[in-house]
Amino acid sequence: MSMSFDQYMRDMVQPMRDELTRLGIQELRTPEEVEASLPDAKGTALVVINSVCGCAAGQCRPGVAQALQNDITPDHLYTVFAGQDKEATAKAREFFAPYPPSSPSIALMKDGELVHFIERHQVEDRSAEEIAADLTSAFDRYCR
Question: What family does the Swiss-Prot or TrEMBL record give for this protein (predicted)?
């Protein structure tokens, strides 16, 4: 029995996708879905650039989960998966200038404009609790 590489990767990353989607975060898997969601999102939108790395598992996704327990949260919750949904991720990153591509990373947008961004290096060296505190502070500031 053989399994294709693509099927193997889908099976491997599905739990990583589920970790965010079970929080109510909508996956954007194509450039068209990104284009239909991000630029015209009224209010605030959180965009998590997910990845398979250890810092995504240990700090990023748990930090996002904790932050979404805050009383004030973004109006829209989205995620793209770097390395898996490559075209969707590339399209989403167009909205995060001047920041270079990094994953995992987290963007907060307001009325289609980037207002807060957490880069990979800010994920790697911090705990989930610190990331959650950073996000909740941004939520309190921008999501009212």
Answer: Belongs to the bacilliredoxin family.
Cβ-Cβ contacts under 8 Å for 59 (sequence gap 6 or more): 123, 124, 126, 127, 128, 131
Q: Could you list the active site residues?
A: 53, 55
Beta bridge pairs of residue 117 = 107
Burial 65-103 (b: 16+ CB within 10 A, else e): bbbbebeebbebbbbbbbebbeebbebbbebbeeeeebb
Residue 103: pLDDT band (50, 70, 90) is very high
Measured distance CA(109)–CA(75) in Å, rounded: 10
Instruction: Kindly state the greatest CA–CA separation across the chain.
Output: 54
Q: How far apart are CA 34 and CA 14, in angstroms?
A: 20
The amino acid sitting at 51 is S
Read off the pLDDT of residues 36-54 as tens digits, 9 standing for 90 and up. Answer: 999 989 999 999 999 999 8
Q: pTM for the whole thing? A: 0.94
CATH 3.40.30.10 fits 1-143, yes or no: yes
CA 16/CA 79 separation, integer angstroms: 11
